[in-house]
Amino acid sequence: MAEKINLEPSLPPLLAETTATMDALMLAPVIQAALKTAVDQDEACLAEQIEITEIPSWPFGEDQRAADFVERFKRYGLTDVRIDEVGNVIGVRPGTGPEPRTKLIISAHLDTVFTETTDFKVRKEGNRYYAPSIGDDSRGLAGLLQVLRCMNENNVETVGDVIFVADVGEEGVGDLRGVKNLFPNKDVDIDGFISFDWCDPREAVVGATGSLRYRVNFDGPGGHSYLGFGQPSAIHALMRTSTTLADLEVPTDPKTTYTVGVLAGGTTVNSIAAHAHMDIDIRSTENHSLLALRDKIMPCFDKACEEENARWGITDPANQVKATVEIIGDRPAGQQPHESPVCQTLRAGLKALDLPLTMYASTSGDHNVAVSMGIPGICIGAGGRNGKMHTLDEWYEHVDGYQGPQLGLLMVCAMAGVKDVVAGILPKRQH
């Protein structure tokens, strides 16, 4: 596979404050010792990754991994370790600075895309480890713990508070319920957010692609295909909607998309369908475009029902086909400037580790909620390489695994500050 292009030269120069902060960190003996610990414990981190992988976890079934992380967080000396209302495991590493201190979350997600019956046993073939979630996000969870160990074993004292979180609901139907609970409103006392969410540390997601997902139900009287002919059909109404949606125009800047991903309905070939439904996914990198497309799509469903009822001359509401819409997913969108502390420390950290920046993109993840609120947020890789995510053949290669925890460590220290070394570049938000 060809090496990806280094994107760093295409970006604006780093701010002087960022460069000075990272330079000071790299000269500090305590940070050099912490970076070395990541190398020395590389195999221990892999072993922990395998242990985590083999603890079953599925959407809304994260309890076993959560209980395990409560014990791991306590073992590593975090304070106020708890499981919140939705299942997030939270622990605090208090800073040394005066109040009000900055509060930085570093996280990874407990959930997977798999089912309760999935076999999570890890097997090794050659240089690869195979198991569902071995990379996404067991590596992220292991990287999270490695950052914590590097700090603890070298007595790295941050100025601001660092909050370690193993969150729930990142994948699919989880709909980011974990981070939504961490950020209930714009006045939340959190100043920055880092998520470990795959492996390659050279890749980062800095923009938040938002999505709205709906299930549209079409319901009518139904009937026999011959004897009841002339009754409106739920499937026909759905088909009328699909035809309209297929011709919609959407903006390319910001990139905005839609797709009907599921169509279902009917019971037998000789029945007029009484029920049908479609699942539709709307996405954009900007909230205003996302909402504009939503407002364009929503009238299509009632219009299709009106056309289907008119086709058969049905005026009695009791015998008409009708549409109802339920939301099944809501991920907010947002973008942030290159000057954002998470973008700055990412780039400076990679430079310090002599690693290229090969992805600097927008997609959907745990960072969405923070970014949509104007809070610096980012998703980064936790070390190594992985592939075939979200499949039973997901694999992980332990190549330079220590680089992910090293990058996470440098970003945390640069933003939160380190006692007697740097003040930290993450500002305290005004409420």
Helical content band: 25-40%
Q: Give the class-level CATH name of the largest domain.
A: Alpha Beta
Q: Uncertain regions: pLDDT < 50 for 5+ in a row?
A: none
Q: Radius of gyration, Cα only, in angstroms? A: 25 Å
Question: How large is the count of helical segments?
Answer: 12
How are the SSEs ordered, and which strands pair?
Blueprint: H1 16-27, H2 29-40, H3 42-53, H4 63-75, E1 79-83, E2 89-93, E3 103-109, E4 123-125, E5 128-130, H5 138-153, E6 161-167, H6 177-182, E7 192-198, E8 203-208, E9 210-219, E10 223-224, H7 234-246, E11 256-265, E12 271-272, E13 275-284, H8 287-297, H9 299-311, E14 322-331, H10 341-352, E15 359-363, H11 367-372, E16 377-381, E17 385-387, E18 395-397, H12 403-416
Parallel strand pairs: 3-6, 3-7, 7-16, 8-15
Antiparallel strand pairs: 1-2, 2-6, 4-5, 5-18, 8-16, 9-13, 9-14, 10-12, 11-13, 17-18
Helix pairs in contact: 1-10, 2-3, 2-5, 2-12, 3-5, 5-12, 7-9, 10-12
Please explain how this structure is put together.
Helices cover 32% and strands 24% of the residues. It is an alpha+beta fold and 431 residues long. It folds into 2 domains: 286 residues, Zn peptidases (Aminopeptidase, 3-Layer(aba) Sandwich); 122 residues, Alpha-Beta Plaits, CATH 3.30.70.360. Helix 1 crosses helix 10, helix 3 crosses helix 5 and helix 5 packs across helix 12. The two termini are 48 Å apart.
